[in-house]
Amino acid sequence: MLAATAATGAMVLAGCAGGGNEDTINIAVANHPWTDAVLANVEEFEAETGLNVEVTSYTEDQLSQQLNVRLNANADDIDVMMVRPLQEIRTFDRNGWLADLTEQATSDEEWDWADFQEGPQESVTLDDRVLGVPLATEREVLYYRTDLLEAAGLDVPQTLEELETAAQTIQDQNPDVYGFVSRGARAAAVTQFSSFLYSYGADWVAEDGSSGIGTPEAREAYTFYGDMLRNYGPPGVTNMSWPEAMGIFTQGRAAFYTEADSLYTNATDPSNSTVSDVVGFAQFPEGPAGSRPTNVPSWALAVPASSNNQDSAWEFIRWATNQENTIVAQENGVIGARASAWETEMPDIPADLAAAQRTSAEVGVGYSHPVVLNVSRARDIVGDPIVTAIEGGDVDAALDSADRAFTEFLASENE
């Protein structure tokens, strides 16, 4: 039976059983809505397979720490683990810690790997090897005030140019409202700026493996994002991550806000938001290269290479990520990676948000920052010119410097 006990805060729910028991699957997970939704029904899996599932649940930081310690020690007491694809897959693979799931994933027609969206698929695939199965995804969408647009006689912006015009118009008409808000702090801004970068036709890394942020398209994207937050954003925005930016929007002080859809309840919950009844959602506006929002998996399931129960581990992953459980998770607010899940109506999600999510998933890009081993350092490098642009500094000079630094960084990572 499922071995997990309730705990509070950052405490571990239960200890994993030791390795070597072929009838028991030891699973290390994060405290997350997906865990609550899907693992609540794990008795069904146990009844179908005759296997026992032992679960240990951690906070996100604790899980990362435990995985690094246990996998580095080549421990065999974890068979399935939740991992963060964009932060950990490359590092874990470089260290030889991940089992290759390609054969299991691609040969199972009933389970259907092809049903997973392209962006999330790419994030768990390295050198044509499937190293995990994405669980939860998020996209960048446009949050906006329906009342302010109506009062200004404006339609929902379909392009970035229209977004700028609408932000300026509403700000001019409402002295107490900023036209636009988003994340402005150096590293935190990178994930939200990504959608602007891609929609301008640029990318973090060029095809030859060098920096891509020095291109004309990237320069236009950096300039546009900086201009938007400098001209129509709140003061102090270069110190803002999502909680501060969301606070500006939910306090009724901004007309437009680009943010991850996974945070939408912060804006629609009347107990947290003064504008809950006038919030609208739309697909990220088109740039010169179209609408290219991020569509990224925040979590995936993977199997340690040191597990002695890899066949049983795959059986669990297969069950936990099938079409039925993807819908179960989605009904509990966890947007999955399967395209087929969108064929089911989502009554608890605002209709305009669901529409934006569907279309965004079709065109989304599966990473929201440079896909490298040292993500923190990369975000600092590419985030510096964002701050310069917001502050009205010399964007070209900042990008020249960051472009050189990022090219050197990428070369060092490949040594």
Automatic annotation (TrEMBL):
It comes from the Bacteria. Pfam families: SBP_bac_1. InterPro entries: Bact_solute-bd_prot1, SBP. CDD domains: PBP2_TMBP_like. This is Sugar ABC transporter substrate-binding protein. It comes from Occultella gossypii.
